[in-house]
Amino acid sequence: MVDVHAPLEGIHTWRAFFIHIATISIGLLIAIGLEQTVETLHHRHQLNELHTSLRQDAQKAIEDSGKMVTLESRHLDWLRARALQIRTALDFHMPVAPPPPTGPRATADVPDSPAWKAAKSSGLLSLMPQEEIKVYGEVDFLLNEIATTYQANRIANQKRHNFEYEYEKDGIVDLSSARPEDLRRYLTLIMDERGATEQFQHWCAEIGEVEKTILDGQLKLENIRAAEHSVSVLGQAKTPPTSGTEHP
Q: CB neighbours of 126 closer than 8 A, spacing ≥ 6?
């Protein structure tokens, strides 16, 4: 707030009056300019902090994406092998073979960007250039798809597990008593889980490529779209997963 005081001495001439008005006006302009300068510096500081947090999130998302894609690839291999066992048993009227080995338990974090979510809820997006907002809007879309497909993947995984628990004996799944219709239901559950896993893996791969593009400073929407379209799950890094979400 700026306080404007009346002059201590009376104003008796037009010249004194205009000098007084000019003095007040200049004082107000200086005060407003200082206030705007302080506000601009504060916003610049906030934007710098936001960019720092977004870069840190991008680096973490790239790491998590690579680990998650590798983890899901291993799980898909298991699902394909198990589906083949069930098909073979159905086609040739054979006993179902024991489940394929799952290997060591491995985990990975689901890619995320807490800084972007915080910026959306706090109103900091107004400080960012419009093109950058569009870029991170695409990131937001990918994060939503990851969350949705992750949940669908978990549900499909749990349904398969629930079926297997019905035939579990001493920690081993024994389908020797399963009827053909039960095996067909089991095969459907496996294929449903495979589809959900592939979808989740795809979006994880996309967020990794997009975040790499952002870290490279290519903050144009066309660059982000190109990164999304270039995704190939088979080309992802084979980094062993270490923490977060786990599979059988």
A: none
Instruction: Give dist(CA 111, CA 86) in Å, integer.
Output: 33
Chain position carrying tokens 């053909």: 180
Is residue 4 within 8 Å of residue 28, measured between CB atoms?
yes
Residues 6+ apart with CB under 8 A from 208: 61, 62, 65, 66, 69, 111, 236
Taking residue 181's Cβ as centre, other Cβ atoms within 10 Å add up to: 8
208, 72 contact by CB (below 8 A): no
Q: pLDDT-based confidence at 223, cuts 50/70/90? A: very high
Structure token digits, residue 134? 């569009």
Residue 130 confidence (pLDDT) above 80: yes
Give the amino acid at 238.
K
Residue 107 has pLDDT above 70, yes or no: yes
- Please say if the pLDDT value at position 10 is more than 70: no
pLDDT at 127: 82
Residue 177 CB partners (closer than 8 Å, separation 6+): 167
CB contact at 8 A, 184 and 163: no
CA-CA distance, 80 to 219, in Å (whole number)? 39
Q: Is 153 within 8 Å of 246 (Cβ atoms)?
A: no
Tell which residue, 149, 148, 146, 137, has the closest CA to residue 225. 137
* pLDDT of 201 above 60: yes
- H or E segment and range at residue 245: strand 245-246
Look up the pTM and report it: 0.79
